[in-house]
């Protein structure tokens, strides 16, 4: 008997297909249904009125465990002029991670040199309002300005020497950045 290679391959392939179709490996799964799921617990929903927000300046800093005690923030001269001794700024001198203090509340803000809008991207971490809305920053001369998502000014600060900036938010709250 003489078989061609093609014929032998065709017979082998037909045998494999036929044997695969007659397996009973999956037939036991066809007969089983999954158990029904237990419904989630249900209850009643109630509606209550929230208390009014605290007036600005009435927040007790002791309720925040990370609030530094006795933090001094330099006052700015009237008219937004830079304080005496303020140095010219560069983006490189501001880039990094800063400890921020806003009216006795603390958080961190990252100021990488990643271009964003008219300045650089900023990332607040667990900051109180309005600093929680910082999206970008930029320097011009002696001033560091923090901006919201629409490019509105949130705060203006000036170098107080070393690794420290002091200033005010647009609503007049004292703000300082330290490393």
From TrEMBL:
Entries under SUPFAM superfamilies matching the protein: beta-Barrel protease inhibitors
GO molecular function, one term: peptidase inhibitor activity
Region (Disordered) location: 24-85, 160-179
Subcellular location: Cell outer membrane
Leader sequence segment: 1-20
Domain of life: Bacteria
Gene3D superfamilies: 2.40.128.10
Mitochondrion keyword on record: no
Entries under InterPro entries matching the protein: Inh/Omp19, OM_lipoprot_Omp19_bac, Protease_inh_B-barrel_dom
Segments forming domain Alkaline proteinase inhibitor/ Outer membrane lipoprotein Omp19: 89-179
Membrane topology (UniProt): Lipid-anchor
Record keywords, A-Z: Cell outer membrane, Lipoprotein, Membrane, Palmitate, Protease inhibitor, Signal
Biased composition (Polar residues): 59-74, 167-179
Recorded family membership: Belongs to the rhizobiaceae omp19 lipoprotein family.
Protein name, per record: Protease inhibitor Inh/omp19 family protein
